[in-house]
Task: structure prediction
Amino acid sequence: MTSRYFLAGGLALCLVSALGLVAQKGSTPPIKPAANGAIRKQPRSEGERVFQQNCWRCHTAPEGFPSRISGTIVRHMRVRASLSQHDEQVLLKFLNP
Amino acid sequence: MQRLTMEIAPRASAHAMRCFSCALVVLLLAHHGSAQNTPLISGGGAFFTSTNGGNTNYYPITEPVLAAPLGQHILVESRAALIETFSPMGGSRPGYNHSHFIGETYLQSDFLVSPRLTIVAGHYLIPFDTYNERLSPPWIGNFQDGPLISPLGLLQGGSGLGGMLRGNAFASNKYSIGYAYFYSTRRNADQFAAHRGTGGRASLYLPGQGLELGLSYDRLLQGTHENFYGGYGWWTPPDTGLRVRSEFARGHHAQGGWLEVDYRLKAFGGYESAIGRIEPLFRMQQTFRRDTIVSDGLPLVNTQRADFGIDYHLPHSIRILSSYARQFSSAGNRNIWETGIAYRFLFPVWKGNEP
Result:
């Protein structure tokens, strides 16, 4: 019985992985961390790339926040996610376009 | 339900709240720095239910986070947990028992010494594998309960008291190498409890592939000295909505691992569409007991568990969580049903001028 459940789990794992790979050429998620909370669909910037590669790995983007706390957020994430100084700078610029 | 927070006796709750209030006052003094560095309050609130063996428990949870920059090189940050628990009286008695916990999870100062080095001082999260530091907050974790092996390597509490060196040893567009080394001293008091120990973590991250591999080691330096080894692998291919995360940990008396896959259905209209907000989840776990000495919080016998879940991301940072797990062991198989709703908040401590 146990092996049957884990076989089903393995199949589900393969299915989800395949779905992800099929969708790999899809669009990037809209990010709206700017102060006005507006959805921005601008061309992919380096800051957005850093955001995708680091922040989204753990959590989804909060739905808008005041830009006066963007420096605090980036500093917190520099420590928590071991961001490089360069990534910290471009991410701060991305959050304050 | 496993929560990696320090439990405080009810009579110490007032003292805990005083400490937290003092920390808040200190953070409020952080009026320096640029206009982007206003202190913030973040965190999450959640209401979870867990039905295990026919008994349903209810857990309202609040976990606030404070972060305040001081000058250009210091960040003071803290997280606390307030958890209420409602559990059935048991037997044939009707009604529910009620208990509460107030716990300080961490309170630390981060000194940004150089681009590659940050010195952390205070009461910090143990950097063993990834779950404790990255996934334990209820507004982040996909499942409401942690992996079975999550107590391993956390020095019997999840937080250390002392210092830590961490940062990015090397970074380029193709790869980066991260590290963390800590030493924790012993403290038996209710507040800032910790065990003496030392250890660290090293990781390699390939951003182009979304692949991260890491190794952890720490050693308990009080009582019976024990070594803990860990390894993890994360694969988050860019622009896919897919995340594959796994961990392995080996302790003196038990070992185990987990693998979790989640996929946000963004292919069906994007992340903001009704279907794109759905996130199917799957997690496999196994634990193996190496001897019969039980001191690590893992199941008493070898255990396998499969978790199936669906999260739904509502607007305004609200998330609905639901999962079903089937757990297998020689102590008996069982079903675990979990549902919940979590809300993430984030706002400045005070109103300031926009930069």
Observations:
- The first helix of chain A runs from residue 2 to 22.
